[in-house]
Write a structure and sequence with these properties.
Blueprint: H1 2-8, E1 11-13, E2 18-20, E3 23-25, E4 27-32, H2 43-51, E5 57-61, H3 64-67, H4 83-92, E6 95-101, H5 129-148, E7 157-162, H6 181-195, E8 203-206, E9 224-229, H7 251-258, E10 265-270, H8 282-288, H9 291-303, E11 308-315, H10 347-360, E12 369-370, E13 384-390, E14 397-403, E15 411-414, E16 416-420, E17 423-427, E18 434-437, E19 441-450, E20 453-458, E21 461-467, E22 473-479, E23 484-490, E24 496-498, E25 505-509, E26 512-518, E27 524-528, E28 531-537, H11 538-542, E29 544-548, E30 565-569, E31 573-580, E32 583-590, E33 594-600, E34 608-611, E35 614-616, E36 618-620, E37 626-630, E38 650-653, E39 668-669, E40 698-706, E41 713-719, E42 726-730, E43 733-738, E44 746-752, E45 761-769, E46 788-794, E47 804-808, H12 830-834, E48 847-848, E49 860-871, E50 876-877, E51 880-884, E52 898-904, E53 907-913, E54 921-924, E55 932-943, E56 954-958, E57 962-964
Parallel strand pairs: 4-5, 4-11, 5-6, 6-7, 8-9, 9-10, 10-11, 22-28, 32-34
Antiparallel strand pairs: 1-2, 2-3, 12-13, 13-14, 14-19, 15-18, 16-17, 19-20, 20-23, 21-22, 23-26, 24-27, 25-26, 27-28, 29-30, 30-33, 31-32, 32-57, 33-37, 34-35, 36-37, 38-48, 38-49, 39-47, 40-45, 40-47, 41-44, 41-46, 42-43, 42-45, 49-55, 50-57, 51-54, 51-56, 52-53, 52-55
Helix pairs in contact: 2-4, 5-6, 9-10
The structure holds beta-D-galactopyranose.
Length: about 1000
């Protein structure tokens, strides 16, 4: 029976690491949200780029709010289906950690809760029966979908995390277990997932790092205890300032205290950072958490012995269709290693690749024990902190070195004293000193096993090593330019031979050869018996790709220490490798003419190379390596410039509500005399948008009253979330706007009214930008913070009920008509309610008018639509962005207060706020964009200024031209416009 269970348990663990299919594996993972790249055909591309970094896993959230926008109707087809996500992960060889919430945070609107959950009486994420019941349908459906994709069913899912950072509850503390409130909620969520068939281990991400929900801690405890950490924080405006107050120390001690029987797990570790409205742009966040940050902070994590490690985000993607929370804009690039448009030029992509690959070939790390905080006894200077990891059973030790002040940008020299199989040594033994130049960290090793050859020590970081044919081994070491490094090898391995150009010093000391060198831009190679050691500058290592050869099922493409690998130098990207006979088949990408060089392979009889199935002409390099060149002749692509007259725009007014003829009888009356909202209400009937089923995009209110001749002022208090704006009209007279700021989520304003006619009927029209709901800490109900008109006063009317309010948001509210694009894609604007943003709108008889040269006159909203053809050649990946230019408004020279929504084939892929920014370029993925056929592009242009607005410039711009081995994504189903009979 026990044996049977052991066989069944494909995922087990001990205090050191996860064990998958009986084999220890470093779970080196990155976060990637399928819903932020709604082109399923591109998921494989992202997985391959993550796999090429040496990662073994990906962690992903699912967003309840996007799947169950209509209560009771969980939509899981089209772009919402995870089928291709699972199959792409398997194909790339990536294990998955599923995080279905139901609360996910993730900078999503309402933290991933559906809008209707805001109306629940009970506190969200509590054990209130209405909240628990609300989650059941979603959890059972998503639970089953994830269960079907578990490793036990042949899929990639190896772990599941219920809820998210569920570590605090006001008034409760984690020591109060076992029966407290939040423990019951956690247990309930876990039970629903187990009922749905989840058998793989559960994990928790305790952001308090207090042992909450650790195994054995009581009700709701998970299998694998993990923590979250964001030490760089989010101040992307000061990207060179590393905060010190969250620098991780003592994590191993905490872990041993809280969860001694599970591997040290970091479920989220900051791999980028976030920006918001009026901010500085995502590229600044990429600087805040750059390659140096990855070197210092990630290596610090390894010094604690982390073996399940997930970095958040590895690929951020897009907050398309209003899916984001109010604190972020359309781009969710996150300054991550892989850019929003799937490019890998950020240096930290390469830095992570060096680190992750090291762990793939270093099984000794997986059983090492962290020796705790920096210890001066190993190192010659207090300027350097060294934290050891001791080998267990295996003799390898790891010494993680950094500046004692981890933020230090200066240089320090040091030597290291360590005990090895040849006794205690102070290194370097020969000449020079080790150096820590600027923000850097090193992993020095002793008695490291290179496939049966003992590397007595190396001060240079190890990138990778493989077994070549026969008993050959190739090892790659790297360091920073001009650094001195040293390694030692037993004399029994052979006599070192230096390649031409290698200036290393070789000295025999006792029973070892000591090789000391200075890192140069030029490659240096030493051969010692069967072992060839490449001594590289880090930047050359960046261009080298260790690739796993496919294996037999069930390992197939997943990583395994027993797998054969090939090491190739190439340019932009290598995705996969296979060998048949003398032929080496590679797939990958190039962005210029690129030389491929076979550094090492398990076969010495390779004679030919194909790249993306094309045979290449091969030769031998001076050092005897097989080489070939991939040519690069970029195709000529013609892209539309929407600013010019060659582009025909059709125009329709999108605020007919301002016309005296407009009939709002089909609108919803704001008639609720009560609200469940914890903030209560200050008006006779609730005016909160969520009370009427509107949760996204924009909102329009209509307030009808009859004049008593005493009105002089109209006061409004409106909440739309950070970055929001609004405009107010009385009949067709513009009263004014709030243009928004990067700080306010609420803005009150008093408008002076023109003199009104006694006993005449009037109507206020208020258009509000809805920027998405907030996220929350458990127990705060912050998500429910209202959106919309929260209070008003009309002078001369002491009874607020004199004004009768109506509301609309997106057509249908929670019963949204466009299931393909989900519940959040549309807002309240007339053109959206009519569905004109969808492909092929009914433009017959519409005015020709350009958003760039004509724009809109006065305060109001115009809808502009055009179409164009693309014809991209096969085999080329050309990421495209729609780029807005300039701050031109009707009044030349002023900073135009205008807002634009960009719809591409019906998908809202941009909210551009001219007066706030910072985002001006909006990437739209292939698949949403039809790269070989017709595309429809529409803009809503909302001028918040009385003098109107024109878009300063608008063009489709290629961000890169890449000859690519990606599989071309199929077109995402994008239903066209059909008449909406019930639209008003
Ligand atoms: C974490 C949270 C993630 C994400 C991150 C910040 O605390 O679990 O979902 O919001 O912060 O990007």
């Amino acid at each position: 029976m026990l044996l049977f269970l052991l066989v069944l348990a494909l995922v087990t663990w001990d205090q050191h690491s996860l064990i998958v299919r009986g084999e220890r594996v470093m779970i080196y993972s990155g976060e990637f949200h399928p819903f932020r790249l709604p082109s399923p055909g591109l998921w494989l591309d992202v997985f391959q780029k993550i796999k090429a970094m040496g990662f073994t896993g990906v962690s992903f959230y699912t967003d309840w709010g996007l799947l169950e926008g209509n209560p009771g109707e969980v939509v899981t087809d089209g772009v919402w289906s995870l089928d291709q996500f699972f199959s792409a992960a398997s194909e790339a060889g990536i294990y998955l950690i599923a995080r279905p919430g139901p609360y996910i945070n993730a900078e999503t609107a309402a933290g991933g809760m559906p809008g209707w959950a805001l109306r629940l009486n009970g506190t969200l994420r509590s054990t209130a029966p209405d909240y628990l019941n609300a989650t059941v349908n979603y959890l059972s459906i998503i639970g089953k979908i994830i269960a079907d994709a578990q490793i036990t069913n042949g899929g990639p899912v190896i772990m599941v995390q219920p809820e998210n950072e569920y570590s605090t509850w006001p008034g409760e503390s984690f020591t109060q277990f076992p029966e407290q409130f939040n423990r019951q909620l956690m247990a309930f969520t876990e039970d629903r997932l187990r009922d749905a068939g989840i058998v793989v281990p559960f994990a928790v991400n305790d952001n308090e790092n207090k042992g909450y929900f650790a195994a054995g801690s009581g009700l709701g405890a998970v299998d694998i205890y993990g923590i979250d950490a964001y030490p760089f924080r989010y101040d992307c405006a000061h990207p060179y300032v590393w905060p010190t107050y969250r620098f991780p120390t003592g994590w191993q001690t905490n872990h041993t205290a809280f969860s001694p029987s599970t591997p040290f797990t970091i479920m989220e570790f900051e791999g980028g950072s976030g920006d918001g409205w009026g901010g500085v742009g995502e590229d600044m966040c990429a600087i805040l958490v750059n390659n140096e940050g990855i070197r210092v902070l990630f290596k610090n994590n390894y010094s604690f012995g982390v073996t399940i490690f997930n970095t958040y985000m590895i690929y951020g993607g897009t907050n398309w269709g209003n899916l984001g929370y109010h604190g972020g804009y359309t781009s969710y690039d996150y300054g991550a290693s892989i850019t929003e448009d799937r490019q890998i030029w950020r240096e930290k992509y390469s830095e992570m690749k060096l680190q992750a690959n090291f762990f793939k070939v270093s099984p000794a790390y997986l059983t090492a024990t962290a020796g705790n905080v920096g210890n001066g006894s190993f190192v010659s200077t207090p300027a350097i902190a060294v934290t050891p990891l001791w080998g267990n059973g295996m003799k390898t030790n790891f010494y993680v070195a950094r500046h004692a002040d981890f933020t230090c940008t200066g240089n320090a020299s040091y030597s290291l004293t360590v005990s090895t199989s040849i006794g205690n040594v102070t290194i370097p033994q020969l000449s020079g000193t080790l150096s820590m130049i600027g923000r850097d960290s090193k992993i020095h090793v002793t008695d490291y096993d290179v496939g049966g050859i003992n590397l007595i020590y190396s001060t240079a970081d190890i990138y990778t090593w493989i077994k070549t044919s026969g008993s050959g081994r190739v090892l790659i070491l790297y360091g920073g330019l001009n650094e001195t490094h040293e390694f030692a090898i037993p004399i029994s391995v052979g006599k070192p031979k230096l390649s031409s150009g290698c200036a290393a010093t070789v000295t025999k000391i006792g029973s070892s050869w000591v090789i000391n060198w200075e890192v140069t831009a030029a490659r240096q190679v030493v051969t010692i018996g069967d072992l060839t050691v490449y001594l590289l500058w880090r930047n050359e290592a960046y261009d080298i790709w260790p690739l796993e050869l496919p294996a037999a099922v069930p390992i197939s493409n997943y990583s395994s220490i027993s797998k054969s690998m090939v090491i190739i130098k190439a340019g932009n990207l290598l995705r996969s490798v296979s060998i048949d006979g003398h032929n080496l088949h590679l797939t990958g990408d190039v962005n210029c003419t690129t030389t491929l060089e076979v550094i090492a392979a398990p076969s010495d009889s390779l004679t030919s190379i194909t790249f993306n199935s094309n045979p290449l002409h091969t030769t031998k390099s001076s050092s005897g390596n097989l080489v070939a060149t991939v040519g690069f002749e970029p195709p000529k692509t013609t892209l539309p410039d929407f600013s010019t007259s060659s582009c025909e725009w059709k125009y329709h007014d999108s605020l007919p509500e301002l016309s005296p003829m407009y009939d709002d009888s089909l609108w919803i009356n704001c008639s609720h005399t009560t609200t469940t909202n914890p903030w209560g209400k200050r008006t006779p009937t609730s005016l909160y948008a969520s009370d009427y089923g509107f949760h996204t995009g924009s909102l329009i209110y209509r307030g009808h009253f009859t004049s008593n001749g005493k009105e002089s002022n109209f006061l409004v208090n409106i909440t739309g979330g950070v970055g929001f704006g609004y405009s107010v009209w009385l009949n067709s007279t513009f009263l004014g706007s709030w243009a928004g700021s990067g700080a306010n989520q609420t803005w009150a304003q008093n408008f002076t009214l023109p003199s009104l006619q006694l006993r005449e009927k009037y109507v206020f029209t208020i258009l509000i930008d809805h920027m998405g709901q907030d996220e929350e800490a458990p127990g705060t109900d912050a998500i429910k913070y209202p959106r919309g008109l929260t209070y008003f006063a009309l002078s001369g009317h002491s009874n607020l009920a004199d004004a009768q309010w109506k509301i609309t948001g997106n057509l249908g509210g929670e019963q949204y008509p466009d299931l393909a694009r989900g519940p959040r894609n549309e807002g309240a604007m007339y053109a959206e309610r009519m569905g004109w943003h969808l492909p092929s709108p009914p433009t017959q008889g519409w005015e020709n008018r350009s958003p760039v040269t004509d724009g809109v006159d006065g305060a109001g909203v115009g809808f502009f639509t055009t179409s164009f053809e693309l014809n991209m050649p096969d085999g080329w990946d050309v990421p495209l962005s729609f780029v807005f230019n300039g701050t031109r408004s009707g009044g030349e020279g002023t900073e135009g207060n205008y807002r634009v929504q960009l719809f591409v084939n019906g998908w809202q892929f941009g909210k551009y706020v001219n007066n706030l920014g910072p985002q001006t370029a909006f990437p739209v993925p292939e698949g949403i964009l039809n790269y070989n056929g017709r595309n429809d592009v529409s803009l809503t242009l909302w001028s918040l200024d009385a003098d109107g607005a024109k878009v300063g410039g608008f063009a489709l711009v290629p961000q890169a031209i890449i000859k690519s081995g990606y599989s071309k994504p199929s077109l995402v189903e994008s239903p066209k416009w059909t008449e909406r009979k019930n639209a008003f």
